[in-house]
Design a protein that fits this description.
Layout (H helix, E strand, L loop, with lengths): L1 H20 L1 H4 L4 E7 L8 H15 L4 E6 L1 H4 L5 H6 L5 E4 L23 H9 L3 H9 L4 E8 L6 E3 L13 E3 L2 H9 L3 E3 L6 H6 L5 E2 L4 H7 L7 E3 L8 E7 H6 L2 H36 L4 E3 L3 H21 L1 H35 L1
Parallel strand pairs: 1-2, 1-3, 6-7, 6-8, 9-11
Antiparallel strand pairs: 3-10, 4-10, 5-8, 5-9
Helix pairs in contact: 3-12, 8-13, 10-12, 13-14
The protein binds calcium ion.
């Protein structure tokens, strides 16, 4: 008996030392990553995506992977997320890729493009087309990885104080509309500006701007535009706005394989969840706008305006492609993917919605 228990103890000691030396033991190391988000504290929908990603990562890893979130009030640099993650000042970021177009023009293509793919088409391009590879090609030289970080769905074309009946009505119109869409609008006579969200209501009320686009019913309702402007235009400029999780590459490479995979799953799930939460919140908010502000009218841009914007967009894309080889590759990939996916969507989703519109 005694010999047997001694043997058992020795075997246990051997097993324990093997365990300590094994990768399994080192995999138990704990990691705390610091994340800077562009949004302020408790920002609806966008900020909830960041929080749910962090919660999932922590629970799936049984506490081995913690993500500490700093909102914009803490780090004071809402549009400095790219630089801070690149420099390793933060390990991760939650923001939107098109905010960096002034630094790295090709980051523009990974949020949403005017007249481009819808959310489901764009997710298909990211995960089954060339999207993820092309995005990584753009972020690689900056020592970062970028992942889809949540989709708003089709954004509304904005709130206008006056109805737009012709191209002339756009001439000199002052509108808050950022990004590539702002450049497209500038081509058709609009005077685009970018004003921080906190100042938008006052700017519209005082006539500093004549029109404003923000996101869609859920987030627009909170800013109160429906109290000032009664024309709510349908979207063209951001048909699938995708937020972004950024990770410093050195930090990513230090994570064990299982934690990398947990992080991937948490980011992808949070992104998907934000897309469906957006549908839910937009539906609720739109019902409340209709009820409380029956004067609000939903409008499509007239054909001549739409056509002029499509042409301006083509012209600007062509200029971007001519100026840069990688831009040309990304634009070609997106156009080809959109064409193929849309041919199917036309006989599926579009046909269904059109048919339903007739029976309603
Ligand atoms: Ca927007």
């Amino acid at each position: 008996m005694k010999r047997r228990s001694l043997f058992k103890r020795a075997a246990a000691a051997v097993a324990l030392s093997a365990l300590i030396a094994s990768p399994l033991a080192t995999a138990q190391e704990k990691f705390t990553l610091r994340l800077a988000e562009t949004w302020g504290p408790n920002f609806p929908i966008f900020g909830e995506a960041t929080k749910s990603m962090a919660k999932m990562a922590e629970e799936m890893s049984d506490g081995r992977l913690r993500i500490r979130i700093d909102s914009a009030n803490k780090h004071k640099a809402p549009l400095g997320v790219f630089d801070m993650v690149k420099a390793g000042q933060y390990d991760m970021g939650h923001s939107a890729s098109y905010y960096w177009k002034g630094k790295v023009p090709n980051t523009l293509f990974f949020t949403s493009m005017p007249f481009g793919m819808t959310a489901q088409e764009q997710y298909a391009w990211f995960y089954y087309g060339d999207g993820m590879d092309l995005m990584q090609e753009v972020y690689e030289p900056h020592n970062m990885l970028s992942f889809p970080g949540g989709n708003t769905g089709i954004q509304m074309g904005g709130w206008f104080r006056n109805e737009i009946n012709s191209l002339e009505d756009l001439e000199g119109l002052k509108m808050r509309i950022p990004g590539f869409a702002g450049e497209v609008f500038a081509e058709v006579g609009v005077n685009p500006t970018n004003i921080p969200p906190g100042e938008l209501y006052t700017a519209l009320e005082r006539g500093t701007i004549d029109a404003v686009e923000w996101v869609g019913p859920a987030l627009d309702l909170r800013l109160g535009f429906q109290q000032i402007a009664e024309y709510y235009y349908t979207g063209w400029h951001e048909p699938a706005t995708e937020l972004q999780f950024l990770i410093n590459k050195d930090v990513w490479e230090k994570l064990p394989k299982d934690l990398q995979q947990i992080l991937r799953v948490a980011m992808r799930t949070a992104a998907y969840d934000m897309m469906i939460q957006s549908v839910h919140e937009n539906a609720k908010a739109w019902a409340s706008i209709q009820e409380e502000h029956p004067n609000v009218k939903v409008k499509n841009f007239p054909d001549e305006v739409f056509q002029a914007m499509v042409e301006a967009n083509q012209k600007l894309l062509q200029e971007a492609a001519e100026g840069d080889e990688l831009a040309a590759k990304i634009i070609e990939s997106q156009e080809k993917y959109l064409q193929d996916a849309r041919a199917y969507i036309d006989i599926a989703d579009r046909a269904y919605l059109n048919n339903m519109a007739e029976v309603e």
